[in-house]
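Still learning folds. Look over my entry:

…
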Amino acid sequence: MVKLRALHGGRDSTLAELVLVNAYCQVDILKGFRYLDDAGKIMNKYDDDFPEKTVGVEGLHMVNKGGVLNELRVSPQRIWLRFAKPDTLQYVLDHAWPLIRDVAAIIDVVEARRFGLRLEHLYPVSDAEAATRTAAGTIFADALLGAGAEPSSFEAIVETKAKDLEVVLRVRPVQRAIKPRETDTLPDFGIMFDADICWGGEAAPVADVRKFLGACGKWVKSSLPPLAERVMAEVKSG
């Protein structure tokens, strides 16, 4: 496993080329068993936003197919959100906090033990095989790959820390398995930069998720572009 410390600097152009495919936000809550009494209140509040709903002892699951704010899950242990193809990271940061705040208030939760944000950025490429070979050659030394190597796939895992954030970043090639029924703007091939960012370890106010999301935004803008640039530079010039 590759371990790096902090990465800083970078070019905004690289971040602009990355497509945010999915974003997931999770808050692991403490003393969330009021959910069992108040699930109906959550359903009523977000009735128009999430047309599909299922509820049980294990949790509430609400879905808005085709919506950017795509899913909401609430249980005694966590509040979980999914954003599907958001236009920008800022959209995720702006909309996650109010929803988490309001749901926590409904179930009378004030503390959490972990905050998490997972971001799946895709760097589009036109030639999947060539991009895979070039990106793998950039990440791994020739001595590791061997002379004349033609890797068909790879996965690199980077662990880094930025102040109180812990980040696990996975880089791998991806390919669309099934053509969508409706035309979209997502590429058929790409290099995925999958960042799992978290803070945890001690009890903290749920309201601190706002600070956490802000710190995540700063990390993505300052650290993801240079890493993506490093991996994709030869792909772009090839």
